[in-house]
Amino acid sequence: MSKPQNNTLTLRAPRSLRDKHPGPTGRPGPPGGRGRAAVVVYRVRKGRVEFLLVSRNSDPDQFVLPGGHIDPGESPKQAAQRECYEESGVDIDLITTLSNYNHIKRRGTVYPTRVYLATPTAIDPSPEARDTRWVRIKDILAGHHNTPSYVLDLLKKANKQLNKPARRAA
């Protein structure tokens, strides 16, 4: 992971994958530069913050944030809401942009990704039949969920933002 610049993180594929695919970091992402959108959805249960994770399509034993490609004619916010519902069955209200980062996938493809913070408004079964979980950060840290480190980093950032004291009017 490189240093954040202008609130943008660069997440790199593991060294083992980079070594197999040498060359400059990053081919361009999707056509038209549409990028990706993802969402950190949280709720409070019994006074504790829980975050929504979904099983990864390519590895159902690994849990990630809901998200995916931005379709043509779609805004990043619309994509985040659509992807969240498709992958988890959860309708959401977006609160704020949490982060922008460049996700570098296998073979060096770069996907600019906008991540939003959101709360659930309705919960239905997942249209994509993915496994969904509401988890606490301490359970991820304890190894109870197989989650990539960048997801944990985003959840920690969201948790920190949620725990900021409210500003008082002067």
Radius of gyration: 16 Å
Structural class: alpha+beta
Q: Beta-sheet strand percentage?
A: 35-45%
Please, how many helices? Answer: 4
Distance between the termini: 39 Å
Q: What's the level 1 CATH class?
A: Alpha Beta
The overall number of domains is 1
Q: What about the largest sheet? A: 8 strands, mixed
Shape: globular
Write the CATH fold name: Nucleoside Triphosphate Pyrophosphohydrolase
Q: Could you state the order of secondary-structure elements as H and E?
A: EHEEEEHEEEHH
Number of strand segments:
8
The whole-number mean of residue pLDDT values reads 79
Low confidence ranges: 1-32
Helix content: 10-25%
CATH superfamily label: Nucleoside Triphosphate Pyrophosphohydrolase
CATH-derived architecture: Alpha-Beta Complex
Q: Top keywords for this entry?
A:
170 residues; alpha+beta; 35% strand; globular; disordered N terminus
Plain-language structure description:
The structure is a single chain. The model is unreliable at 1-32 (pLDDT under 50). The protein has 170 residues and is α+β, with helices and mostly antiparallel strands. It contains four helices and eight strands. The protein starts with 7 loop residues before the first strand and ends in an 8-residue tail after the last helix. The protein is globular and about 40 Å long. It has helices spanning 15-20, 76-88, 137-141, 149-162, and strands spanning 8-11, 36-45, 48-55, 63-64, 67-69, 90-104, 110-123, 132-135. The protein has one domain (8-162): Nucleoside Triphosphate Pyrophosphohydrolase (Alpha-Beta Complex), CATH 3.90.79.10.
